[in-house]
């Protein structure tokens, strides 16, 4: 039984036909963002939620029409949080680990939230809680009433949860749970850990765990690309550092994983390219799209496992040669945004490079990036366009918004 469940999840490339994916439909957490909190919450602008939901539903519709089964994280969380003991544990983790909750607020919220249904509980955990939210809570007096403003959050909202790519990644038939760089995203990977441990979809903790949200060093899913059964690309970026990458290599090399090689792609540590997948995605077994504006600033290293189990490090000549060496094929790097550096930079900012492959040579992309999509089509790629006036405001595209659970590769 457990073996069958484990086989439900398998990702051996970025492009094999996508069968199952996890998403989060944006909800009221997006309506909690205030202009003065934008940078702390990792947004550039205030989104219009109802339009964003329509756009997200359009994304989900395209996936379904291509035969992809969708699992919404909010539903999976409800499945495991029907259990009262687990709800209590989550509450303890959230309230005790919070600097924003003083004692009277904690006492009130323990009682109030413990009584809620699994659905309402999940809704509060994602949407957050401030003083204005609950009538009875407004009457509770505490120090925070004097020192904080009324919009102050006792439980922070999770506006980045719709970027499902980052808190966890399936590698082969195991999983790496991210240790998030920013405090505002840490609860997201805590949720993935909860699903991993208790949900039957994740074989209730029986899958190999290659990275954990409680590791001290950071690693986020947007930096991990499964290139083939034995090779990963890992971005060394603003969000994922060398210590996290080394830890991942160590965990993979000392487990049953088939991964033998990690290609470390070092990119500039800037907001516009916070993860590797904002500048580089795989679109077919022998095709990638890349933002050419970073090519001169990229360094590529490899870590491989030797016969004796030791690590072997090397600097690679350049990205194309390194990919060809480890994927054992000649391949094309297609410039997103085309040849004009101005268009390329503008479209990269709006996630033109962040495509989601749903089959070899078939990708979902934001329709707004007209030049990038034209270039891809001219190279024989089937591009499914989705609308993204609002989805784009959190700085992530179709790949960032999806966590593949199962792909069928040959
Ligand atoms: N893989 C990705 O690049 N994900 C996009 C994350 C955007 C989010 N606002 C963040 O800054 O973390």
Automatic annotation (TrEMBL):
Compartments where found: Cytoplasm
Pathway: Amino-acid degradation; L-arginine degradation via ADI pathway; carbamoyl phosphate from L-arginine: step 1/2
Gene Ontology CC terms, in alphabetical order: cytoplasm
Active site: 400 (amidino-cysteine intermediate)
Alphabetically ordered keywords of this record: Arginine metabolism, Cytoplasm, Hydrolase
Enzyme Commission code: 3.5.3.6
Keyword Hydrolase tagged: yes
An example molecular function term from Gene Ontology annotations: arginine deiminase activity
Catalytic activity: L-arginine + H2O = L-citrulline + NH4(+)
Gene Ontology process terms (BP): L-arginine deiminase pathway
Enzyme class: hydrolase
Top-level division of the source organism's lineage: Bacteria
Similarity-based family: Belongs to the arginine deiminase family.
Protein name as it appears in the record: Arginine deiminase
Organism: Alkalibacter rhizosphaerae
């Amino acid at each position: 039984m457990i073996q069958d469940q484990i086989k439900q999840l398998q990702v051996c490339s970025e492009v094999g036909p996508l069968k199952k994916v996890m998403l989060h439909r944006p909800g009221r957490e997006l309506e909690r963002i205030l202009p003065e909190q934008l940078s702390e919450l990792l947004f550039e602008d205030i989104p219009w939620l109802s339009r964003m939901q329509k756009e997200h539903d359009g994304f989900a519709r395209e996936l379904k029409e291509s035969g992809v089964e969708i699992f919404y994280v909010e539903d999976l969380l409800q499945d495991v949080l029907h259990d009262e003991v687990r709800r209590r544990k989550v509450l303890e983790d959230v309230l005790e680990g919070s600097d924003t909750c003083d004692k009277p607020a904690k006492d009130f919220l323990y009682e109030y939230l413990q009584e809620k249904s699994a659905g309402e509980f999940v809704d509060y955990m994602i949407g957050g809680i401030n003083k204005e939210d609950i009538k009875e809570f407004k009457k509770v007096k505490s120090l925070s009433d004097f020192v904080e403003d009324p919009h102050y959050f006792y439980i922070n909202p999770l506006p980045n949860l719709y970027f499902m790519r980052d808190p966890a990644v399936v590698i082969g038939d195991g999983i790496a749970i991210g240790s998030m760089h920013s405090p505002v995203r840490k609860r997201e990977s805590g949720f993935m850990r909860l699903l991993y441990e208790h949900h039957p979809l994740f074989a209730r903790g029986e899958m190999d765990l290659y990275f954990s949200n409680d590791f001290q060093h950071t690693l986020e899913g947007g930096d991990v690309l499964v290139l083939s059964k034995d090779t990963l690309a890992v971005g060394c970026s603003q969000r994922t550092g060398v210590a996290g990458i080394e830890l991942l290599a160590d965990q993979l090399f000392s487990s049953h994983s088939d991964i033998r090689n990690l290609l470390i792609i070092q990119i500039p540590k800037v907001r516009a390219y916070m993860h590797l997948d904002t500048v580089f995605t795989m679109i077919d077994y022998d095709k990638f799209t890349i933002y050419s504006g970073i090519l001169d600033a990229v360094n590529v290293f490899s870590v491989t496992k030797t016969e004796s189990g030791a690590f072997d490090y090397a600097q690679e000549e350049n990205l194309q040669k390194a990919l060809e060496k480890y994927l054992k094929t000649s391949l094309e790097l297609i410039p997103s945004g085309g040849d004009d550096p101005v268009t390329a930079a503008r479209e990269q900012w709006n996630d033109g490079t962040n495509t989601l492959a749903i089959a070899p040579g078939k990708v979902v992309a934001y329709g707004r990036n007209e030049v990038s999509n034209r270039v891809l089509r001219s190279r024989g790629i089937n591009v499914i366009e989705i609308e993204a006036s609002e989805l784009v405001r959190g700085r992530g595209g179709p790949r960032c918004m999806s966590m593949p659970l199962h792909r069928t590769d040959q």
